[in-house]
Specification:
Order of helices and strands: HHHHHHEEEEEEEEHEEHHHH
Distance between the termini: 28 Å
CATH topology of the largest domain: Butyryl-CoA Dehydrogenase, subunit A, domain 3
Mean pLDDT: 98
Number of strands: 10
Helix content: 40-55%
CATH architecture of the largest domain: Up-down Bundle
Low-confidence stretches: none
Shape: globular
Bound molecules: acetoacetyl-coenzyme A
Number of helices: 11
Largest sheet: 4 strands, mixed
Radius of gyration: 21 Å
Strand content: 5-15%
Strand order of the largest sheet: 1-4-5-8
CATH class of the largest domain: Mainly Alpha
Amino acid sequence: MDFKFTEEQEAIREAIRDLAQNEFAPKAEHYDETGEFPWENVKKLAQYGFLGMVIPEQYGGTEADTLSHTICMEEVAKACAATSVIMEVHNTLHCEPFVKFGNDEQKARYMPRLATGELLGAFALTEPNAGSDAANQSTTAVRDGDSYVLNGRKNFISNGAVADLYIVFAVTDKTKGTKGISAFLVEKGTEGLSFGLPEKKMGIRASHTTDVILENCRIPAANLLANEGDGFKIAMTTLDGGRIGIGAQALGIAQAALDAAVNYAKTRVQFGKPIGQLQAVAWMLAEMATEVEAARWMVYRAAWLKDQGGRCDKEVAMAKLYASTVASKHTNKAVQIHGGYGYIQDYHVERMMRDAKITEIYEGTSEIMKLIISANLLK
Ligand code: CAA
């Protein structure tokens, strides 16, 4: 057992921490308030190679391991949770399945531009009636000569409208259940592809979330990812990676809230002493720190396990379940420690509390994580 990071992982942490603290953190409040898409941050991530992290070197990426990406997610989320999910969706939900399941021609066509961030990726699985029940897809893809014609409506799509390339899941054979779902690459600008307005959300407000609408959207048959019927497996294996990313996002938000609470507890004086010296507050901090640390190692271990190969959905689900619970619980505690100041924008913890909630919902709710864990225990 080795709890030490490699020199490369330490260097990556230092680089992304500098970028996130110097460039993203000072603007997090502005992006939260305005809901503007943080293009400036995305361009910086691209400039420093963080949008090519899972892409092979031959296509211009840096091919980092999952633990390195996890470290980056944690550091970016500490500064700006909205920016972190934009990166996560591009890297883990879009580029990773593309690397794993795309063919050489598809990779040559798109991957160098995904690696530099010239193209931003998205993942379109969820539908109004296929949320937790992801297999209940209604979007259809019908083969017509050298094309597929797609019809349907995806919703809650992160990077919706702002992305350039979408992995879209659709039913190619209704009689085959999960084995009748396929995955396709759909380019922005394709006739029949349009978007809804950005949702007005409680948190991660600068990360745009829209419907993706497909109306007789004709794409080349060459845009099928892997084979017909592979879509559900692609979605599930992709989400195993994605859930590590969201666990890391939760971890980063929780750490930022803990840091803010510790800082406040040292400087806020009541009853003649800093409030950190009051046992009620000191114990809250101790519990927060312990649980954030436990979440950290569960998330890191899930990342390490994924890189060993093989299925690790139980450990991934445990890590996401725990880290997101910790993030929700302890951002709330951080607000409590700040008292009235925690409830106003200036101290940032109310934003963290709002941002944390989504980690219990997207890429599989906490209830779905429990379902995956218990199914593994009982099989
Ligand atoms: N790895 C590989 N294969 C997997 C798998 C995994 N992790 N999980 C399931 N499978 C396979 C199963 O082995 C099975 O294969 P066989 O038929 O060959 O045996 C097949 O997939 C079907 O599996 P299930 O019977 O378990 O499928 P199910 O319909 O019962 O659904 C579920 C399982 C876990 C509930 C799934 O629907 C699920 O994960 N739901 C949550 C959906 C979700 O997370 N959505 C997130 C949307 S993206 C998002 O949120 C992004 C964002 O905004 C940031």
